[in-house]
Design brief:
single chain, alpha+beta, 7-stranded mixed beta sheet, 6 helices
Amino acid sequence: MKIIVSKDKLVRFTDWLWSIIDRRLVLLFCTMAISLSSCVKYDTGVNFTSLNYGEIVEHIQLGEQLNSFSEQAVQRWVASIEERTKQAAGKIERISDREFKVIIPFNNAQELVAKIDRYFNPTPVNSEDTSKFKAHLQVEQNNFLLVVRNHLSYDIDLRSLAIQSSDPKVAVSSQKNVDLDFRLQSPWGVKNSDFSGNIVGVNTTNNNQMNWELKPGELNHLDAIFWLPNPLGIGAILIILISGGGYYLKYRQLPWQI
């Protein structure tokens, strides 16, 4: 049996075949690009300058793949970050169109806990403003007069971390496309206090800073111990020493020697 195909039908069939191949190649290249290169780099840091001042600093970088994949979804996500930053009394520094930094100051450990909760677990204005992940921070402090021992415990639920959209082509796999780090910095250093969790901190910057690489799609738990000088205790000791020195210079003997 001999099949005769006209030239016009052959041309149409060839164009149709190449269109399928082109679409599959484009889809393959897009998948490879997204899998091999992170769409979002999310670095969250808590910097303690002293016992009474510090900053929550987030450095966020959006990859070009993410912007081209769904500009509308990215804009909604950035708007949510801006709203949460405003609720936590912070500010945003825009480095470029795809990179910005969130800075939220705090004056003590209690305010740090409150602002972390306000930023990561905000009160939603509407259904689109809900946070993409939940976080719970605790800081226990023990005062030893001259120094204060701080025990920081941080639970981060990243199981629902993803950029969602009604279009399934827009959804991005969080495990492959998001790099998440948590950083804790203290002038006297940081020590990892719990090695039983799923992540372990790594000391950097002369042991003054510890980094944890968080795991998207999982519950993350970390514990850290760090010490800070107590200005009230140090001030009280200085006042006692100055008063005792002045008394000695005046009477040539210390009060307890009378």
